[in-house]
Design a protein that fits this description.
With about 120 residues, the protein is mainly alpha-helical. The chain folds into 2 domains: about 5-85; about 85-119, no CATH class. The protein is built from 4 helices and no strands.
């Protein structure tokens, strides 16, 4: 596996996630400022519910982006310390195919499946 290509992929993904987080934070700040200027009596209940649902979805997207960023940062650290490509659970090698698709993977496919099953 080419460490330079992997590092480039991870850095590009980190930059993308940071931009996504910034955009979501900006959108959340604007929407919160908009609602603070309005009286709750100005909104119909359906409008308020739609706004709340949209805001919750944006918060969830931001949380997912932050989790992705943490995975990417962890993969970059593993590249630096020489442990990249080693499963965190069983210490076996993570397959090159898996790492090409998901360069931030920290578990081999077998351990990932066990984790998803809750085992």
């Amino acid at each position: 596996m080419d460490d330079d290509k992997t590092r480039t992929k991870l850095l590009q993904e980190r930059d993308r996630l940071l931009r996504e987080i910034d955009e979501l934070e900006d959108g959340l700040a604007v929407s919160l400022a908009d609602t603070s200027e309005e009286s709750p009596y100005d909104q119909h209940m359906a409008e308020a519910a739609a706004f709340t649902q949209e805001r919750q979805m944006d918060l969830t997207l931001e949380e997912n982006a932050r989790h992705g960023l943490a995975r990417v940062e962890r993969a970059l650290k593993k590249l630096d310390d020489g442990s990249y490509g080693v499963c965190d659970a069983c210490a076996k090698a993570i397959g090159h195919g898996r790492l090409n698709i998901a360069p931030d993977a920290s578990l081999c496919i077998d351990c990932q499946r066990l984790t998803e099953k809750g085992l």
